[in-house]
Amino acid sequence: MNEPIPRAVPVHAPMDQFPVRDGELVVGGERLSLLAARVGATPFYAVDRGLLRRRVAELRAALPAGVKLHYAMKANPMPALVAFMAGLVDGIDVASGGELKVALDAGADAAEVSFAGPGKRDAELRQAVAARVLVNVESERELAVLAAAAAEFGVPARVAVRVNPDFELKGSGMRMGGGAKQFGVDADRVPALLARIGELGLAFEGFHLFAGSQNLRAEAICEAQRQSYELALRLAAHAPAPLRFLNLGGGFGIPYFPGETRLDLAPIGANLQALAERARTELPEASLVIELGRYFVGEAGVYVTRVVDRKLSRGQVFLVCDGGLNHHLAASGNFGQVVRKNYPVTVGNRLGDEARETATAVGPLCTPLDLLADRMSLPPADVGDLVVVFQSGAYGASASPQAFLGHAPVTEVLV
Ligand SMILES: *Cc1c(COP(=O)(O)O)cnc(C)c1O
């Protein structure tokens, strides 16, 4: 008789970025129960400064020296975090007039701020010209508004062209380029747009390509970078001025779900090294830029919510917590997931416990969608314990329907 080959059950990547002390998770150097007391209320998000610093250092070590790192602040626009990141990275990418204000307040250097987004209103474009930041132009319409603002204010309108490429990013969680898209200008229409930029006397500075998000396959990212470079090189022949920036996008993913593993930066570093060497002769005035959101901040943050009730329903344990979908839509599985999977979750003040039980952690909302952990193996928890959702530094509070059901907004701290 043939024995069935045992198949490995997919598990979450180890969340070993946070140490454990006295049976408790340590975030920002503090035991979780003390941190919760210091914050003063649950639920809360906490992002660890030391982990942000470490992540930037790892990227600097893995990528060639000349490559600029930009933080795409829509991943986490908390002002204290944006200010901290502004001091660590080479530039901030904003996606609205509101984010632009936060970035400038945070002390970001306007010369290194860029603004992308498919529906920039006239007022936002004028804001960008007045602030002297780079606008990644995504339509013909934007040009006239920018030219008028430049004439009115007597300052140059700095522009790059966001190109909707003629390829798609394989293995991406969310595709944002290739095919018919609301983002950028189709590659074949870019030469005409460049001519118009020249006629209007706008200050052309480069190209921006963003193929997609949440990619854990280094080879797919390298392929997209190579194709982006080739496309930019072809389009540069039509440009009214030499390229100063070539933003190759990002899309670096982090492991959220069972079976996913951390991205290998080594091949990406080697690939960028090769492209940077080519750029030295082919685009001699251009800096290569990589823009990342979740890769910088996602693994550095946790969402912490307290167990309000412990219930047994037909044999299943439910931990009812004081926050859920209203603060952390992504962990509930309702932010772009097709099939719901569990984020890595634990009970952060019970890590000394050897015992495990199968439990379901839910939030306080009157909807079955409000689920943080579906039948996971967790340290046994009771009322007052602290359920922790890892990988929560990106697309948390600002990407959640906080007003839904009228609970208090979540607290966010940088520690
Ligand atoms: C959302 C976005 C990013 C950030 O994506 P991450 O997956 O968080 O790295 C970067 N650039 C653009 C243009 C975006 O729209």
From TrEMBL:
PROSITE patterns: ODR_DC_2_2. Its cofactor is pyridoxal 5'-phosphate. Keywords: Pyridoxal phosphate. InterPro entries: Ala_racemase/Decarboxylase_C, DCO2ase_PEP1, De-COase2_CS, De-COase2_N, Orn/DAP/Arg_de-COase, PLP-binding_barrel. The keyword Transcription regulation does not apply. PANTHER family: DIAMINOPIMELATE DECARBOXYLASE, GROUP IV DECARBOXYLASE. NCBIfam families: dCO2ase_PEP1 (TIGR03099). This is Pyridoxal-dependent decarboxylase, exosortase A system-associated. It comes from Rubrivivax benzoatilyticus. The lineage of its organism: Bacteria, Pseudomonadati, Pseudomonadota, Betaproteobacteria, Burkholderiales.
